[in-house]
Amino acid sequence: MRTKIARPLAALVLAAATVAAVHSPAFADTTTTLSFSAHQDDDLLFMNPDIASDVEAGYNVWVTYLTAGEIPCESHDPCGMDYADSRVQGERAAYAETAGVPNSWTYEEMWFGGHPVAVNHLDGTNVHLVFTYIHAAAGPEDNCGDLFRMLHDDSYEARPIDYRPAYTKDSFVGMLRSIIDYVQPDYLRTQSTLGHRERRGDGVADNVDHVAGAILAADADVDGAGNTWIRRDEYQGYVITDYPDNVGGYWRDRKQQIWNAYKPFDYQISPWSWDNVMGKQYRPEGRIFWPGIPWVPPGDFNAC
């Protein structure tokens, strides 16, 4: 799937001076989790209620958004940075709802792998949101997006829409690895690296950004031998709309409440969009990569 830091914060995102990293990544006795989400809403739709449970438990919760989640201006309005910025506002509202605190955030520009990255910290909590602003795939103008292009062309330079320095595949994976190094998570979450094979009954496979982002994050989570470094769990995407509900009671209600907090900020969805996944979350046991398990990217993810 594919959000506004409030307007003053958007200006900071575009033109902020470097700020020293003053937020400790974790407390030694507190569980820390790091989730990689392609767009601003994939975490809410496909990784909840697991992330929400982390927040309620008081864990150190980091979520990194691998694209800007924007849409092209040729065929949409709002679009570009305005739309991406609005969706960031939605994520902030959603996590304030999750944590049960006022929607008050501190912005910080942090450096990972030599790249400046926009980070939002939810005041009074252990919740941190990282925004890369990489150009997202969105048809009909661009069905591929920069994650797919980096994945398939080592020389391609992806230029974030917030005008921060460009990435190649190696430097983007290096930046993600630096986030992992800094956060020191107990485990990671990504979307499905096999989403291109996971088709709904109507033939629709997962979003190209979901798959490409998951593969790039998995590439960052390996040791020198190519084996998984930190446990990584994969979460399925569009295909779960065909699956039976497996989340009920309190957590279904909380997932809906959190999603409802996001909705008003995303002008491309209706008031009932994606309500059909509020009772679902699928993390296949066979897609949990424990430390030491070899990581081999799928060889058939070749088309967008």
What do you see in this structure?
The chain contains 8 helices and 8 strands. The chain has about 300 residues and is an alpha/beta fold. It has a single domain, classed as LmbE-like (Rossmann fold), CATH 3.40.50. Strands 3-4-5-2-1-6-7-8 form an 8-stranded mixed sheet, with helices on both faces. A hairpin with a 2-residue loop joins strand 3 (about 105-110) and strand 4. Helix 5 crosses helix 7. The relative contact order is 0.17. Residues about 1-20 have low confidence and may be disordered.
How would you briefly describe this protein structure?
Helix content is 30%, strand content 14%. It has helices at residues 7-15, 42-46, 50-56, 80-99, 145-152, 169-183, 208-220, 249-262, and strands at residues 32-37, 60-65, 105-112, 115-122, 127-131, 187-191, 232-235, 288-289.
Report helical residue fraction. 25-40%
Please write the CATH class name.
Alpha Beta
Beta-strand proportion? 5-15%
What would you call the shape?
globular
Tell how many strands the DSSP assignment holds.
8
CATH architecture: 3-Layer(aba) Sandwich
* Mean of residue pLDDT values: 92
Strand order of the largest sheet: 3-4-5-2-1-6-7-8
Number of domains in the coordinates? Answer: 1
- Let me know the CATH homologous superfamily: LmbE-like
Supply the number of helical segments: 8
Give the termini distance in whole angstroms: 15 Å
Rg over C-alpha atoms, rounded to the nearest angstrom? 18 Å
Biggest sheet features: 8 strands, mixed
Task: Give the helices and strands as they follow along the chain.
Answer: HEHHEHEEEHHEHEHE
Protein name: GlcNAc-PI de-N-acetylase
Keywords: Signal, Zinc
InterPro entries: GlcNAc_PI_deacetylase-related, LmbE-like_dom_sf
Pfam families: PIG-L (PF02585)
